[in-house]
Amino acid sequence: MMRILSRAIILLTAGLLACEQTEQYEPKPTVVAIIGRDAIDVEAYTKMATKLLASSHRGKDPANLDTKRQLLNAMIDRQLLVMEGQRRKLAASSRIVAALEQLRSKLVWRALFNAVSVDAGIDTSGIQTFALEGGFTEEVLLQHAMLTNEADAWSVLEALAAGEPLDVLAVERSIHHETGHLGGYFSYMSVSQVLPEVREQLLSLEPGQTYPEPLTSRYGVHVFRLVDRRPADIASRWDVVLKEFRVRERTRVFEAFADSLAKANGLVCAPLAGDRPASDPLCTWASGQLLSSDIDLAAAEADPQSWLHKKARDRLVVEEAKRRGMDRQPGVRDQVNALREEMMIDSLRRVVVGRIEVSDAEKRAYYEEHPELYGPRPTVRVDEVLVADLTLAQRLRGQAEAGVPIDSLARAHSIREVTKKRGGSMWLVTRDNPLLGDLAPLALDSEVGALLGPLEVPGGYSVLRIAEKSQTPARPYEAVERNIEVILRLSAEHQRMDSLLVQLRGDFADEIVVHEDALGSVLTAWGAREDDARN
Question: What angle do CA 330, 27, 16 make, to 5 degrees?
Fold first, then answer.
C-alpha cells in the first residue's frame, strides 16, 4: 500500500531544505511521485517495484530508466483507479463494508492471540514426542495429476492402466500449475505436510504404487502415486518442528484464555432446535449477543452446539481486542485500507468491463491463427543430471561421452530431487518453462540420442541426453474452446480498462507530479540485493 504523505508537508519540507542547503550536504530525493493527495516515496516505490519485478515485470532490468518509468506508471495507474473508486463512492457498498469488518475482526483476533500467547512454547520438554506423533520423522515423494472432477480422474487412471506415463498425463491434463509442467512431482515433504484428507490413503501405499481410486482434497480431485519414502533429517528441519510445536502450545494457551473470557462474561448459548427468526439471539454475554442472522447455520460442523459456542466466543474475543485498542494498531489499519483499495478497484473493473460476449467466429479465428498452441506438438523424454558446479558438469559430460549412462550419473549426482530417483528421466511438452530455462526448447528441437550440455539453467548446470521423442496430436477445437473464450474475454477486459486509464490520465493530469531525480535514484542497490539473495 502507498505511503501516504501530505502534499503540503512535502512542499513545506522541500522549501525548508532549500533555505538551509549548504555546499557540504545535499539531501537525497525521497518522493518519487505525487498523485492527488497521496505520494509514493522511495521506500514505497521500492516495495511495490519488488512485487512487480517478481510478477508482471519479471525479467525487466531494474537499473534501466525505462523500466523504472514503467514500474512507476503501473503504480500511478493503480492509484488513479483508487481515486476514481473514491470519486464514485464505491467503498460505501454493503459488500465492501462487510468484507472490511470481517478482515478487521480477523486481524484484531490474531493481535490478541499473539499478545496472550507470546511466551507459550518456550518450554520444549515435550518436543520429541510431538515430532514423532506429528509425522516429522518421515518424508515422502509424491506424484499426482489434479483434475476438475472424478470422471477426468478415472480417465487418467484408465490411461495409466493402458501404459501411458503419469509424467505426460500430468503435463497434458493436470490443472495444478505448480507441479503439472514438472510431470506432477512434488519435492520431498514430511508426512506432516501431506494434506490430512488424503494422508491415510497415501501412507497405505508402497513406493511405486498408484492409489487405485481418485482422491478428493480441498483443492480438487487427484490421481496420486507414492514414489518414495525415507527417514527425515530432523536436525535439518528442527526449526520447522520447533515452529509447529510453538503453534500448538500457543493455541493451547489461547484456548484457555478464550474459555476464561467466555466464563467471565457469562457466555450462554441456547440449544439449536428448529427454525429461528433472524432476530432471535442464539448466544448472549454481558456486553452483546449473537443472532441467527449473524452466522450461517448450514456451515455447522459435526457438533453444532460446540461450533455455535466457538462462534460466539470468537465474537467475544474480537470485542475484547477492540476494547484494548487493537483495531487502531497501524498494522491493522494498513491492511484494512489495502483491502478497501483492492475491492474498490475490483468493483470499478466490474462496472467498466460489464458483460463481454465472445462469438464462435472469434474463437475459431483465434484457434486457426495459433497452430503453435493447438496444432500437433513434439514431446520428448530426456535423461538429465543437474549439478550446481560447472566443472563437475563438464566432468559428467565427459563420462557420458565415454559411455556412462546418464541415469546412473543422475542417481549419483543430480540435485533435481523430483527426477533423481528415476535416473533423471522427465517428459517435456511445453517450450516455455521458467524452472527449466533453455533446456526445454533445446531438447524439443534435438534428435534422439543427442547429448547436450553443460547448459546453464535455473538451479545449476544440466547435462542431458534425448531418450525418446513423439508427437502429440492436434487439440480439437471443442476441447480448447472454453480456454480460448477466457483468453479473448480477458483481452477485451484489458482493452476497456486501458481506455479508462487513458481517460483518468487526462482527468487527473494536474494532480500527477513525477520527480525525475528521485526516479533515477531508486533501485540502485538492486543488483547487490539479488546477488545477496543468490548467495
Answer: 80
Count Cβ atoms below 10 Å from residue 475 Cβ, excluding itself. Answer: 16
Query: Helix %, strand %, coil % for the chain, to 5?
Result: 55, 15, 30
Is 30 buried (19+), middle (13-18) or exposed (0-12) by CB count in 10 A?
middle
How many Å is the Cα radius of gyration of the chain? 29
Measure the CA–CA gap between 289 and 312, rounded to whole angstroms.
Answer: 8
Does the bond joining 454 to the residue before it have cis omega, within 30 degrees of 0?
Answer: yes
Strands of 366-459, DSSP E: 377-387, 425-428, 451-457
Q: Give me the residue label for grid cell 432476530.
A: 279
Q: Please, are residues 87 and 224 in contact by the beta-carbon 8 Å criterion? A: no
| Residue type at 228 in one-letter notation | D
How many CB atoms neighbour CB 486 within 10 A?
11
Interval 361-379 mean pLDDT = 90
pTM comes to 0.63
Residues 6 or more apart in contact with residue 37 via CB below 8 angstroms:
4, 6, 7
pLDDT in tens, 123-182: 888 888 888 888 888 999 999 999 999 999 999 999 999 999 999 999 999 999 889 888
Query: Could you tell me where the beta strands, DSSP code E, fall in 355-477?
Result: 377-387, 425-428, 451-457, 460-472
Beta strand extents in 150-214 (DSSP E only)? 189-190
Predicted confidence at residue 535, as pLDDT, reads 44
